[in-house]
């Protein structure tokens, strides 16, 4: 088994049904596994991403620690949408997704209006269409991530 797999498995084992946030001391974990702390960083930044349903928060001082929070299961539909968006999305598709989220009561009406306003073509006048769609996709995903936070 690769070291990265071992690190990821150890981190995943720290989560349980009652605890969606874990605290990791990077240096302690590295010494337990016999690796360098940068390997811990690599695993966290590559396998525990917002698109995979995790939020990372790093604290400095006192030895420093890293908090990893796993998205709650009720947010899994929104996470699935975030993962399906890809690198670009047009305004019509964004609006359809927003409508579906609202219709399924996954987001409230006010949030739906804010998402629609933020992803509208009128915000990106003067930009080429492919750039608009790429920016819209990034904004849409980041706003959905903030919603489930």
Descriptive report:
This protein is mainly α. It is 56% helix and 11% strand. It contains 7 helices and 3 strands. The chain has helices spanning 3-14, 26-33, 37-47, 76-85, 91-103, 109-118, 129-148, and strands spanning 21-24, 54-59, 65-70. Strands 1-3-2 form a 3-stranded antiparallel beta sheet. The longest helix has 20 residues, at 129-148. The chain is elongated and about 55 Å long.
Task: Compile the SSE list and pairings.
Layout (H helix, E strand, L loop, with lengths): L2 H12 L6 E4 L1 H8 L3 H11 L6 E6 L5 E6 L5 H10 L5 H13 L5 H10 L10 H20 L1
Antiparallel strand pairs: 1-3, 2-3
Helix pairs in contact: 1-3, 2-3, 4-7, 5-6
Beta strands, count: 3
Arithmetic mean of pLDDT: 87
Report the end-to-end length measured between terminal Cα atoms: 33 Å
Q: What's the arrangement of strands in the largest beta sheet? A: 1-3-2
Shape, principal axes of CA atoms: elongated
Structural class: mainly alpha
Radius of gyration based on Cα positions: 18 Å
Major sheet size, sense and barrel closure: 3 strands, antiparallel
- Share of β-strand residues: 5-15%
Low-confidence stretches: none
Proportion of residues in helical segments: 55-70%
Number of helices: 7
Query: How are helices and strands ordered from N to C?
Result: HEHHEEHHHH
